[in-house]
Write a structure and sequence with these properties.
alpha/beta, 8 strands, three-stranded antiparallel sheet, five-stranded parallel sheet, binds BIS(adenosine)-5'-pentaphosphate
């Protein structure tokens, strides 16, 4: 099963991706997670991405296209994958399409998470992430069982540096300017499936599963 998740920051793409990837045993390719890991390991890509990410700007297309092309060549992607956070510009969408077409790979689902600004801000400001396994929590909507600790691996939870008010605002502006055209790109290709990102995580997960079952996945 090959899936693309589109939608604004905080729409719940990462949360749904973790649930689906666990159920269907496919890799979760989050470009944000890849960049944060690269930064933690102080690689060239990570250091280049740092200044963009801190401001909520997009990392240049050529860097992102290379990162994703290499990741999709890894053996685990033969089972399928969820692309979360990529493509994020029209150029990335075109390059992805060209690369996949060359390998005769077809994307099965492109989901767009329609989400209100009010929910986005509340979700991002309360988000907490496990330093160790990247599991996503929310201090009100999805709190961990033990405060500050991951339910899965007991790792410490942290707040992303770009989840502050000013950077959230900038990420939303960047989203509208650069990433909205990606929604139109898939809409024009009649590949876009709109889902309600405002729903509770469990409700949305059920809806996505129903869509997969209807197509016999
Ligand atoms: P990235 O890491 O991709 O961040 P983002 O797009 O801003 O998306 P988020 O991770 O913030 O949102 P999400 O939809 O996954 O929400 P989540 O499930 O965590 O990118 C970070 C940066 O990297 C970018 O700014 C850019 O600089 C760079 N970058 C990455 N990819 C790039 C690319 N392709 N090109 C250029 N630059 C790139 O949920 C949020 C919170 O809400 C959580 O706390 C969760 O518990 C809670 N929640 C989730 N769903 C629900 C629900 N249904 N109900 C209630 N609460 C919920």
């Amino acid at each position: 099963m090959k899936i693309i998740f589109l939608g604004p920051p905080g729409a719940g793409k990462g949360t749904q991706a973790q649930l689906i990837c666990k159920k269907y045993n496919i890799p979760h390719i989050s470009t944000g997670d890849i960049l944060r890991e690269a930064l933690k390991n102080r690689t060239l890509i990570g250091l280049e991405a740092k200044t963009y990410m801190e401001k909520g700007e997009l990392v240049p297309d050529d860097v992102m296209n290379k990162v994703v092309t290499l990741r999709l060549e890894e053996p685990d992607c033969s089972r399928g994958f969820i692309l979360d956070g990529y493509p994020r510009t029209k150029n990335q969408a075109v390059k992805l399409n060209e690369g996949l077409s060359r390998k005769s790979i077809k994307i099965d689902f492109v989901f767009y998470f329609e989400t209100s600004t009010e929910k986005i801000i509340a979700r991002l400001s309360g988000r907490r992430i496990c330093k160790n396994c990247q599991a996503v929590y929310h201090n009100i909507n999805m709190p961990p069982k033990k405060e500050g600790l991951c339910d899965i691996c007991d790792g410490a939870l942290y707040q992303r540096p770009d989840d502050n008010e000013q950077t959230i605002k900038n990420r939303l502006e960047v989203y509208l300017a650069a990433t909205k055209p990606v929604e139109e790109y898939y809409q024009n290709r009649r590949e876009l499936i709109r889902v309600n990102g405002d729903l509770q995580a469990e409700e949305l997960f059920e809806i996505l599963n129903k869509i997969f079952e209807d197509r016999e996945f």
